[in-house]
Design brief:
The protein is an alpha+beta fold. Helix content is 19%, strand content 41%. It folds into two domains: 33 residues; 160 residues, no CATH class. A seven-stranded antiparallel beta sheet has the order 1-2-3-4-5-6-7.
Length: 198
């Protein structure tokens, strides 16, 4: 009887250790699970691009300074901090080329200036929606006047009943001619440099 008691007492810590290790392994697996990530692409031609100078010279009140041919890549990551799963962090990579007709910056802003070159940018949004984004809803070729928020809404189905809310969009960086002219968003909106014309 005494021998059995000692064996049982010796076995108990080993069993407890196995349970604790198993629980720890499950917790570790849960915390290392990757959030859901969805990507989608679309292309735009003759897409109007804007500057921070508006209503000056050739730049009208719509602030348009050039037309872009670009690809927008949307990366949507489900926010793990929202237990409902309805919050998504959306980043957009914008890559293409531009054709400008006006000087976008400096003392000659709005003056006639023909310019061309690469354009590259990133911008972020937060989306809350009951719907799940679906890349098949985004056309491969968007209309030239499609805004980023239009394409985000398309990804979530363009259904008013889903109560899709888009916020953010103030954190961005867009570079023209490999950094000759750069637009910066939050925390302090600003532009640096200028494009080179020909």
């Amino acid at each position: 009887m005494r021998i059995r008691t000692i064996v049982a007492a010796a076995a108990a810590p080993a069993a407890l250790a196995a349970i604790l290790l198993g629980t720890a392994g499950q917790a570790s697996a849960a915390t290392t699970a990757k959030p859901v990530t969805i990507t989608a692409n679309t292309h735009l031609n003759n897409h109007p691009d804007t500057t921070d100078h508006c209503g000056v010279g050739l730049i009208k009140d719509d602030c348009v300074l050039d037309d872009d041919a670009a690809t927008e890549k949307f990366t949507l990551v489900q926010d793990p901090s929202d237990p409902s799963g309805h919050t998504w962090q959306v980043s957009v990579d914008y890559v293409g080329s531009f054709h400008g007709f006006a000087d976008p910056s400096g003392p000659n802003a709005g003056a006639a200036l023909t310019s061309d070159g690469p354009v590259k940018g990133t911008i972020t949004f937060t989306v809350t929606s009951n719907a799940t984004p679906d890349p098949s809803r985004l056309p491969g070729q968007s209309t030239s006047d499609a805004h980023l928020t239009d394409n985000i809404k398309a990804l979530f189905g363009n259904d008013p009943s889903t109560s899709t809310v888009i916020s953010g969009g103030d954190q961005y960086t867009f570079s023209y001619q490999n950094g000759s002219y750069v637009q910066h968003g939050a925390p302090k909106n600003s532009t640096t440099g200028d494009v080179t014309g020909h």
